[in-house]
Each structure stands twice: as C-alpha cells, then as structure tokens.
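TA notes, week 10

Several of you asked for a full example with nothing omitted. So below is the full record: structure tokens for the whole chain, then the designed sequence directly under it. When grading your own attempts, check the secondary structure regions first.
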C-alpha cells in the first residue's frame, strides 16, 4: 500500500496542495511522538512588582519646563481636569497616578514519547494590582 510521500514512487501523482498537506500531517505526527506537554498551571504571583503610571488610577496636572512648544499634550476632560496656570517657561502636563503591577508565572511539564521528563516551560504576564500600592 502506498501512502503519503511515497505516492509518486508508486506511479500516482500528487498536487502541490496534497503534498503540502501530507508533509504537514507527517511533521505534526512526528513532533507529537517526540514530545508531550501537560496543561498550563494556574497563574501565581512571582513576588516581582512594578510601579507604572495608569489612567485607571486617575490623573493630575503638573507644571514642567518644556523644550519645545509642540511637546504639550492634547487636552481633554471636564472641569475636574482644569489646566493650572503655570509660570513663564513652563507648561501644564497631565500625569497619571501610579499603579502597582504584579508579575505572574505559569508552567507546564513536558515528556518524551517514553514518558521521560524533558523540560519545564514557563510563561509570564504582568497584571494590574492596585492604585498607589506603596509606589
């Protein structure tokens, strides 16, 4: 019985699409036989944190020296976002309050076809924690 890539050797012809599909299926089967990984664990905090400005935590205006008049940010919002009157040589800049972010990790364990451990894979994400938060 002729199968897959051997069809041309048995006198059959394969279209380029059939050949590509067969090669993809063969490769996927070979990779699956080599390695199998479990499901990802649930996310857990690594202990690493970062503080970054966040629009979620509100904002405030500050007067700062600017190098170029074009550096001024566009203005939007209601009366709670009134622009301060700044001294000469300074312009009002909208700043966002800080937020604390936690780094989280998840892992999965992988094995070869014989069931032997091969590696552990990790993935990371950064998630919002709290406004301020000691930043």
């Amino acid at each position: 019985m002729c199968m897959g890539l051997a069809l041309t050797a048995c006198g059959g012809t394969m279209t380029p699409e059939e050949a590509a599909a067969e090669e993809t299926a063969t490769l996927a089967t070979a990779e699956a036989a080599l390695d199998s990984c479990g499901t990802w664990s649930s996310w857990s905090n690594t202990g690493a944190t970062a503080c970054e400005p966040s629009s979620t935590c509100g904002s405030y205006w500050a007067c700062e020296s600017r190098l170029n008049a074009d550096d001024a940010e566009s203005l939007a919002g209601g009366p709670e976002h009134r622009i301060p009157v700044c001294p000469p040589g300074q312009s009002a800049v909208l700043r966002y309050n800080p937020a604390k972010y936690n780094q989280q990790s998840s892992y999965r364990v992988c094995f070869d076809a014989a069931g032997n451990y091969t590696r552990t894979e990790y993935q990371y994400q950064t998630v919002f924690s709290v406004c301020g938060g000691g930043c």
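The longest strand covers residues 117-131. Use that as a sanity check on your answer.
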